[in-house]
């Protein structure tokens, strides 16, 4: 009996990969992700109402490398379209998509919940309410990103305050607090919209998500937050692997689960709030992308996080390309496109979550 039990334990240990085992990023998936990113960027910069030649775009980009000067490229009008309209929009899509995907993976890691996303703790509801107040006030529209950022951070702060007051450090109480705070903030936003019906179109245009840019200003706003938040989450990738065995087991290995959860959530919240402040509420990226990476390349966060950043940026650039070409000369909100892909993906997540986790 004892020998049989020991044999089963050894077999289980062999079949179950340890979260502490060294994991390397699969080179083939890294190459595929980088290749997809390059293709998406090139198509995002060439396709549009004013079509640009692919060869000219490539030469124009290469000519901006110090010490390189090639014949060809774009004329002045085409170069203006590329650098003032297309390139800022594509770069913004890369940053927002990467941040939402990383934040989603981080949330799923600390809460050990395959359906967790960057909007779990009320950042979306808070950002939506902040943006709504800024829009209906009739003031400077440049204040909308700032109001959305402040609202998103305030929403998560309210969730943490409520969760700690009700259930201490329990993960379930924090999630339930996020649901309650989001419901309250959404109801306030609905009331404000009803009182200001003339601003409904603009408010819902922001809520549905868009990557409209007025040059590089939006990129400059969001870039520092994405870099800092992404660096903090990446620095905790090994600890997220340890947390996958459970908070109690992680504690026996010397990992402070509560502190790791707080740091990752704060970083993901700041990055997400900055992203949605310039793009609106683009849904499903934080759920779809990490699960695609897990199903294809493995569940270790040393693999999930870097590939999610690449695939998330690619996914949003491609979604934005579809949004501005499917109903040309009109344009769909990019959030509609991501929802069209993400909503059916829930079925796949629910069916595969037991295998992935």
UniProtKB/TrEMBL annotation:
Main location: membrane
Pfam family, one: FecCD
Localization, UniProt: Cell membrane
Annotated InterPro entries: ABC_BtuC-like (IPR037294), ABC_transptr_permease_BtuC (IPR000522)
Molecular functions per Gene Ontology: transmembrane transporter activity
Keywords: Cell membrane, Membrane, Transmembrane, Transmembrane helix, Transport
One Gene Ontology CC term in the entry: plasma membrane
Tagged with keyword Cell membrane: yes
Segments crossing the lipid bilayer: 29-52, 90-107, 119-136, 143-162, 174-192, 213-235, 262-289, 301-326, 332-350
Segment forming the signal sequence: none
Entry keyword annotation includes NADP: no
Alphabetical list of CDD domains matching this protein: TM_ABC_iron-siderophores_like
Membrane topology of this protein: Multi-pass membrane protein
Family recorded in the similarity comment: Belongs to the binding-protein-dependent transport system permease family. FecCD subfamily.
Record-given protein name: Iron ABC transporter permease
Organism name: Jiangella asiatica
